[in-house]
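#dry-run=false #mode=assembly
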Amino acid sequence: MTPEDLYKNSFDGYRQDPPPGVWDGVNRRLATKSFFTPGLGHFNILYVAAAAAIVVAAFWMSPGDQQSPSTNGENIIIADSSSDGTRQTAGDKVPSYDENVGKELSVTIPKHNNVQHQPSQQTENADITTTAAIKADSGVSVTSSEPEIQRTSLIESPMPDFTSAFHASLHQGCAPLTIQLQNLSQNTEYCQWYLGNGETTYEQNPTITYNKPGTYIIALRTVSGTYAKTSYDTIKVSARQQAEIAVAIQGMTIIAEARNVNGGNIVWDFGDKTQMMGKKHSHTYKQPGVYDIVLTISDDICTDTVTRRITIKEPEFSITFPNAIIASRSGFSSGDYKSASPENKALFGPKGNIDNLAKYNLTIYTRAGKQVFQTNNPHETWNGYYLNELLPRGVYVYKCQYEFVNGESATVNGNITLLWE
Amino acid sequence: MEEKTLIEECRKGSRAAQWELYKKYSPVLFGICLRYSDGRETAEDILQDTFMKIYSSISDYEGTGSFEGWMKRIAINTAITNYHQSAKHKHHEDVDDYAQTIASDDPNFDSLEFTHEELLGVVNSLPDGYRMVFNMFAIEGFKHREIADMLGIDINTSKTQFMRARNIVVKKLNELQRIKRH
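#status=ok
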């Protein structure tokens, strides 16, 4: 085929997985663009400006000896006051699928002995005002240069000494992924697990199976009195690939294609120490034999392997000639070539693996030694005619020299009996 | 997610939908970028720019015609922009070295004989302008008039560059074939 056709066919629907860094770049640029696009629905420069304005205003309006509460954009830690008591909850936004992969969210609240007491002029009705220092450890949630956030709230009793903590047996794996959760919380009244897939449980050490791929955020909420603390962890579940190998074998060359592949790196091992990457390949074996093609598809978490055994047969390097032809008495003219076929008894030419011929020369003589046919094209056959005349019936002699692409060569001589139809 | 919903969510700026779209179409678009570039690094840059353009102009997509086709066209346009911005190609405008080797007979290649990597390697090695024209004419099937408009060149330049690109491609494929057969 022409180079145009070759390229058009090869690259029609051609797919190649880009490296992960490309999405990182796109993601960064989207985040930057979003940050500088003002709007209400997402975190952007307006929020920062508004937060800065509030801080400045609070600074100017508050008396010198009073410490004012500070806010921190959308990621503030909220102290939620209600009529039946005060509870601490972490007000972090739920991370989106891509931003927080692999990151761990955690909120720690200092123990009771870290709590400072100080009087406040604004809270006349309260017995005690407690300022709790809350530290946000997550790389995602802290946007201020000042990680320690001072927050004032009204409570009626000191915070009891209790913790929320847990350990997950695995943080990533292929679906279905089963993990064991171990509750490490201390001095709690009760604990509630939010498993990230919509389920909740009050079991102490639950075991959970995630059947679908995705990123799940597990939260453990521990309660003591009117206080609650929550700790988080993230589990990433990847899809298991169910790829198949499709192979077409043509002589010593195969075309192998990976089907049902959803992303990931595709690596082929053709069983002859040749490795290639990409979805579709043609590969030519140097030796006949039985080969195991191994297809490995891997993403950050899952690796799947599919094997297919193929047999590559030795190509034939031989041709044969018929010993007689029955010439047609009409309908031919000199130079009218037709490919030789075993069925067509009217034509003289080679049979066998003629496509593997590199050199070829066939000459046909009368018994008196007069040349009546000559060709270098193995597809060109002799029909029993010479100069538009059907030759007399009888025996003719042929001589053929040929060489195959593998270097094998031979010279054959033989007789052809020419019969008439 | 269905394509219509995906497009709608991307219009709203949902990062999850943008990621879905990227996951689904980046391999096809990367395949195009690889052809139009001189190597993987440039192809990655073009792909990144392509997706930024897709996300910012997805509201312009009218829903008529293939969405994938629309994105492919953006990838090609981005590659053209990249070609214009790259100063490199200016030095290659007058590469005539290969033009003399005019193929005497119509070449005949077997697609089984070359891997994608080898075919890409040949296209990647073409001078920038030749590569653009070769891709647009031979693979995308644009007419020389359209190519001339898009690249801002004369129609005859497009034709000449294509013939020269083709000659280089034929020469290199022949070389490859010879190496592989021996």
